[in-house]
Design goal:
heterodimer; A: mainly alpha; Cytochrome Bc1 Complex, Chain C; two-stranded antiparallel sheet; about 65% helix; B: alpha+beta; Rieske Iron-sulfur Protein; 4-stranded antiparallel sheet; 1 helix; 11 strands; elongated; binds protoporphyrin IX containing FE; binds FE2/S2 (inorganic) cluster
Chain lengths: ~450, ~160
């Protein structure tokens, strides 16, 4: 195929090489391609190992930068004009709706791919054998992605934007001592207003992109520095086939990128980005919901004191940060779920979450009334500390049960606990998206 | 344990190193501080945050609730004739509460907290009564200072202002 390549392509782009040696040199000498090693072990290319999730995240991030820059030319970050500038884009500007839709849906997609990528890295032990630092960088990237979405969410200045940000930032005021000051600083005043829109815009289009570019570059560099992506430890005399990056890896990447871009484009054509009514500070919509990826947290808020609803995810995130130090067993790297036992623990963890979470949500809605059960206690304790401690105790109990009765080693027991947490979070998110109606009461989705 | 000879004189190199380090730290602090001051919360535009003249005492009937949209408060006249300026921001997570006259309560649509006429919590999750603004009455005119938010756990009679 490459033999027939036309002349101009040879001159302008690169000379398609046909022998392995020059193909490897082509990778090493090209700015973009040099992020890759010149050769990769064949099993690392298996689609079902990485699911291409890191690469797809990177591609989505690139799409976001391109569409974001285009949007900046048309958007106006003032509360008088932001909404109309978006409306104008949606109705008058040729391709306006398309560019906005691409940005909106790519942002949503990136939350999903980065989240799934984290799950895949955990499940294959991708944080082991010196990869702990990159796990931390990855978590920071995920936090950046969420921060991008949180700040970007405000910019259209519609009802959804205004109230989601109002509720989200009000959480801060529960943090003792510094909370209110931090919230005032972020909002540029006591309420969401013009200063907030300015602040969030600057953070969204300048601060976060710079951080993302820096940390993504470091992330990729580190993957290579750590000897490529994680692989199972093999026998000294077992020979693994190593393939050249061109064409084997590059071909896969192009195919994945083409599929993603096509699917995304079709989606955007048929489902334009939503835009609600203009923000009205006197009248919140009912129900006033957060963006879908924050609805798991929103659901927690309906069951716990705001401080507990922040502390619980905070403690779990701290646990995620510590994972490379909690699971120090390196010999099971590169194996999904660590082992057969790990797979069993994951299954049990998932089933427990599926059984427990719906029951708890319904029980709290219908019967449990903690402030009424302990009328003399302050709510900070009855709906805060008490459920927080109970939840943490349950998590520790689950781990210990896996260890004692499941006969799992720490590495395998953590897999079970991790899956329990992830499934619980997804279930809470589903409840928040589909099962919460007016006044945030439980409803059956219609 | 490392033993350190403290009597050793500071060499010129050490002194310069220390000096440059300290000065750099100071410069960094200054830049950081300047940035923080630069980014400080701006003063609010419009009426909110200023003095709002609500009207004459006699124009508010007993037990009435009147909304001041720009001032972001409800002027409540309690059953014994006292005034209370209730900030409309829900103490749970900041949504705007609405006065529901038929139900005789303030209701928050975000997580269904409700409050009675004087702002006391009737229904959680709101953790405390609605905030208020100070009221002064001058020559029969009610003046509300929306720049000062007063927080409270619950209503107490001494919060009412009488003409
Ligand atoms: C903006 C978001 C992110 C991008 C663009 C990104 C990109 C990538 C890419 C391209 C790889 C190579 C392997 C693969 O494709 O799976 C990778 C590997 C890795 N990522 Fe990410 N990533 C992101 C977020 C994260 C997150 C949220 C985590 C976890 C907390 C993480 C942790 C890691 C680790 C530890 C590796 C090495 C995995 C191994 O050796 O198996 N990254 N990332
Ligand atoms: S913000 Fe009013 S009840 Fe939550």
């Amino acid at each position: 195929m490459t033999e027939n390549t036309s002349n101009w392509r040879q001159k302008i782009l690169y000379k398609p090489e046909t022998d392995d040696r020059s193909r490897m040199r082509a990778v090493a000498n090209n700015l973009i391609l040099h992020l890759h090693p010149t050769k990769v072990p064949a099993p690392a290319l298996r689609w079902t190992y990485t699911w291409g999730l890191g690469g797809l995240s990177a591609l989505t991030a690139t799409l976001l930068v391109i569409t974001g820059i285009l949007l900046m030319f048309r958007y106006d970050a003032s509360i008088e004009r932001a909404y109309t500038s978006i409306q104008y884009m949606e109705t008058q500007v040729l391709f306006g709706s398309f560019v906005r839709g691409l940005h909106h849906w790519s942002a949503n997609l990136l939350v999903i791919t980065a989240f799934l990528h984290m799950i895949r890295v955990f499940l294959t032990g991708g944080f082991k054998l010196g990869r702990g630092n990159n796990w931390l960088v990855g978590l920071f990237l995920l936090a950046l992605v969420l921060a991008f979405n949180f700040t970007g969410y405000l910019l259209p200045w519609d009802q959804l934007a205004f109230w989601a940000i109002t509720v989200g930032t009000s959480l801060l005021s529960y943090v003792p001592v510094v909370g209110t000051a931090v919230s005032n600083f972020l909002l540029g005043g006591p309420e969401v207003g013009q200063a907030t829109l300015r602040n969030f815009y600057a953070i969204h289009v300048a601060v976060l992109p710079v951080l993302l570019a820096l940390f993504m570059s470091y992330h990729f560099w580190k993957v290579r520095k750590d000897g490529g992506i994680s692989q199972p430890i093999r026998d000294k005399n077992e020979r693994v086939e190593r393939l050249t990056t061109i064409p084997h890896l590059v071909q896969i990447e192009f195919a994945a990128a083409a599929v993603l871009i096509t699917a995304l484009t079709l989606w955007v054509i048929f489902v334009p980005a939503p835009l609600e009514a203009l923000a009205d500070p006197s009248h919140p919509p009912n129900p006033a919901k957060a963006a879908w990826y924050f609805m798991g947290l929103q659901e927690l808020l309906l069951h716990m004191h705001p401080l507990a609803a922040m502390a619980l995810p905070g403690i779990i995130v701290a646990g995620f940060i510590l994972i490379p130090w909690l699971d120090k067993q390196d010999d099971n790297i590169g194996l999904y779920f660590r082992s057969r036992k790990g797979k069993q623990m994951a299954l049990v963890g998932a089933i427990w979450a599926l059984a427990l979470i719906p029951v708890l949500v319904i029980a709290d809605e219908l019967w449990l009334d903690l402030p009424a059960m302990f009328p003399t206690w302050p709510t900070l304790i009855s709906t805060g500390l008490l459920p927080l401690l109970l939840t943490l105790a349950a998590l520790i109990a689950i781990y210990l049960i896996f260890r004692e009765f499941g006969h799992a080693n720490p590495s395998e027991a953590l897999v079970g606990l991790f899956i329990f947490l992830i499934v619980s979070f997804i279930l809470l998110t589903i409840v928040g998206i589909f099962f919460r109606g007016a006044n945030m009461a439980l409803v059956w989705p219609v | 344990m490392t033993t350190k000879n403290t009597s050793q004189p500071v060499t010129r190199r050490d002194f310069l190193k220390l000096g440059i380090g300290a000065l750099s730290a100071l410069a960094l602090l200054e830049v950081g501080g300047a940035s923080l001051i630069f980014l400080q919360p701006r003063s609010l535009e419009g009426e909110f945050g200023g003095m709002v003249t609500a009207g004459l005492v006699d124009s508010f009937p007993i037990g009435s609730v009147v909304e001041f949209t720009n001032g972001r408060f409800y002027l409540v006249r309690s059953h014994d004739g006292g005034f209370l300026a209730v900030y409309r921001r829900c103490t749970h997570l900041g949504c705007t509460v609405e006065w529901e006259a038929q139900e005789n309560r303030f209701f928050c649509p975000c997580h269904a907290s409700s409050f009675d006429l004087v702002g006391n919590v009737e229904n959680t999750p709101a953790p405390r009564a609605l905030d208020t603004f100070p009221i002064t009455i001058d020559a029969g005119q009610i003046i509300v200072d929306t720049g000062t938010i007063q927080t409270r756990d619950a209503f107490a009679p001494d919060q009412l202002v009488y003409a």
